Amino acid sequence: MRKEIIKKLCCPFDKSDLTLWTITEDDEDKVLAGILSCAACNRVYPIVSGIPIMSPDEYRDFKLEQPILKKWKKILNGKQGKQFKTSEGKIKAIK
Q1: Where in the sequence is the domain holding 69, given as residue range(s)?
Q2: 24 beta partners
Q3: C-alpha span between 24 and 30 (Å, rounded)
Q4: What sign has the CA pseudo-torsion 51, 54, 60, 64?
Q5: Residue 67 pLDDT > 90
Q6: Which superkingdom (predicted)?
């Protein structure tokens, strides 16, 4: 997904701005894997194969997201940033 498009997205729950943290991108500067986080409601939305998973909570299968988050935890391994933190195998948005 192109970064210009990501900048136009907002949180589907509270319409707040989202912060992008890129895990991988291609040669054309498109995000292939990453995290969109909302500091207002503390939700995170993974970007998988260039597609942001922004479904409402009741339609998300968090069990399917766990392998991805475990893989990313190895990459992030306890690193903390302004947008997210890793804790107990889960990535959470922070303010």
Answers
A1: 3-93
A2: 33
A3: 9
A4: positive
A5: no
A6: Bacteria
Six token digits for residue 11 = 């949180």
9/79: higher pLDDT? 9
Mean pLDDT of 62-79: 70
Give the number of domains in the chain: 1
Q: Which residues of 24-63 are buried (b: 16+ CB within 10 A; e: fewer)?
A: eeeeeebbebbbbbbbeeebbbbbeeeebebeeeeeeeee
CA distance 69 to 24: 14
Q: Could you tell me which residues come within 8 angstroms of residue 65 by beta carbon, excluding any fewer than 6 positions away?
A: 46, 53
Structure tokens at 37: 């986080």
